[in-house]
Design a protein that fits this description.
Elements: H1 6-17, H2 21-30, H3 39-42, E1 55-59, H4 63-79, E2 84-89, H5 92-101, E3 106-110, H6 116-126, E4 130-134, H7 140-148, E5 152-158, H8 162-169, H9 172-179, E6 184-187, H10 190-198, E7 205-206, H11 220-229, E8 235-240, H12 244-253, E9 261-265, H13 271-280, E10 285-287, E11 298-300, H14 307-313, E12 316-319, H15 333-337, E13 342-344, H16 352-360, E14 365-366, H17 372-381, H18 383-412
Parallel strand pairs: 1-2, 1-4, 2-3, 4-5, 5-6, 6-7, 8-9, 8-12, 9-11, 10-11, 12-13, 13-14
Helix pairs in contact: 4-5, 6-7, 11-14, 12-17
Length: about 425
């Protein structure tokens, strides 16, 4: 059913629900899903002062989107140092990583809830000259308030899931009204380009901000220490979620020749539970946070911001988030930039275009849980083949990174 007033209904409904937002946020904080010390930011009631001069606001929902913003942040700080950069995100994990990775002068805040009052307060406080939203973050109250205040708006690396596209397709006038606020839309790929145009958006081109990043940083001293601990290159399991640890540990146990393993969970607080899973399978395990340097068959990397260390150290890796449904996969580009041969599970819908390109280039092995042990064993048995695959992945990613940097230049043209 076409509902031309869908956005007005949304704004009215979120306005009615706004009084209960503090209680909902407090409940989420008790469950560890919000930072209790920073709940005021989620209500746009924080007292962080806005610096004088032009301000660019960049928003990415979670870890992947937030990290994809970093090349743009770095370009802004280098080329337009007079501009303040405000970065917002919505998860505690993304906030912790951004605290480590944002350059000096950039400000991080939690994104406000998308309610009319919070949106109005946020825009009034920060007065952004340009707002850049990444991927599929279409928050009507924030977007409409920003547009009404004269903020230029860009949607970059834009994509819509099947569910979102189907939902907006039933509300074409609302979709057109919302997409019309953007001064620039850059789609993530050809499929997204077509979807946004079908909904009435004016798409200026394609740029996937997941490309364009520099290689992950590393602490050289930590790398030297870990190389002493691992005279044989370890095998890395990167960014696991519940249900995946069991799969990868079973695959490791089944290997005829077992290398040392680094298992880096997506959420570091799960470290103790993962060591228990490893020990239940007869594997010795240690937590990096509690026993750095301690040898074990499985070292659980329960620390933030060290993936650049592990990709450099590892002789190969599995990119998790892809072994069970409903997660959507994680970033395979970080491994490729650091010449780490990668294996992935089949569930990679959040990274469809990247994996499609890597598969076409012969730069990744795709395996399902039943074949994962065989895929790891084949990699370990043929170092030359896995390094050739890593080189093909690096070549593909280098080319796409150059294209993405060109897209960043188009965004910078909107900066006052």
């Amino acid at each position: 059913m076409i509902r031309p007033d869908a956005l007005n209904l949304y704004r009215a409904a979120t306005g009615l629900l706004e009084p209960v937002a503090p209680a909902l946020l407090a409940h989420r904080a008790r469950k560890g899903k919000e930072d209790p010390a920073r709940l005021a930011e989620r209500l746009a009631r924080a007292d962080t002062p806005r610096p004088e001069g032009p301000l660019v606001w960049l928003h990415g929902a979670s870890v992947g989107e937030s990290l994809s913003i970093l090349p743009l942040v770095e370009r802004l700080r280098a080329e337009k140092p007079e501009v303040t950069v405000l970065v917002t995100s919505g998860t505690t994990t993304s906030a912790a990583l951004l605290a480590k990775r944002l350059p000096p002068g950039a400000i991080h805040q939690y994104a406000p809830v998308d309610a009319p009052g919070a949106a109005r307060r946020f825009i009034a406080q920060w007065k952004p000259d340009l707002a850049v939203f990444v991927e599929s973050e279409l928050w009507p109250n924030l977007l409409l308030e920003a547009k009404a205040a004269g903020t230029r708006l860009a949607l970059v690396s834009a994509k819509l899931s099947d569910r979102s596209f189907a939902s907006w397709s039933t509300r074409p006038q609302a979709a057109y009204r919302l997409l019309s606020v953007f001064d620039l839309i850059l789609a993530q790929d050809a499929r997204a380009h077509q979807r946004f145009e079908r909904l009435g958006g004016k798409v200026a081109g394609e740029a996937d901000l997941k490309f364009g990043a520099t290689p992950l940083p590393v602490d050289a001293a930590a790398l030297a220490i870990e190389r002493e601990r691992f005279p044989t290159a370890p095998f890395l399991i990167a960014s696991t979620h519940p249900g995946e640890d069991e799969i990868v540990l079973d695959a490791i146990v089944a290997l005829p020749h077992r290398p040392p393993v680094i298992l880096a969970p997506r959420h570091v607080e799960r470290g103790p539970a993962i060591t228990a899973l490893a020990e239940a399978r007869g594997l010795s395990a240690s937590l990096r946070s509690r026993a750095p340097g301690q040898p074990a068959e499985v070292v659980v990397a329960d620390t933030l911001g060290e993936m650049g260390l592990w990709f450099r150290l590892a002789g190969g890796c599995v990119i998790a988030g892809s072994l069970v449904p409903d997660i959507g996969g994680h970033n395979p580009l970080e491994a490729a930039r650091l010449d780490c041969p990668a294996i992935s599970g089949p569930f990679v819908e959040n990274w469809t275009s990247a994996y499609a390109g890597l598969e076409t280039a012969g730069g990744v092995v795709m395996a399902d849980p039943s074949t994962l042990a065989d895929a790891i064993a084949a990699d370990l048995a043929d170092p030359a083949a896995r390094q050739a695959r890593a080189a093909r992945a690096r070549s593909f990613v280098d080319a796409r990174d150059r294209e993405a940097r060109d897209g960043l230049s188009r965004i910078l043209e909107l900066v006052p």
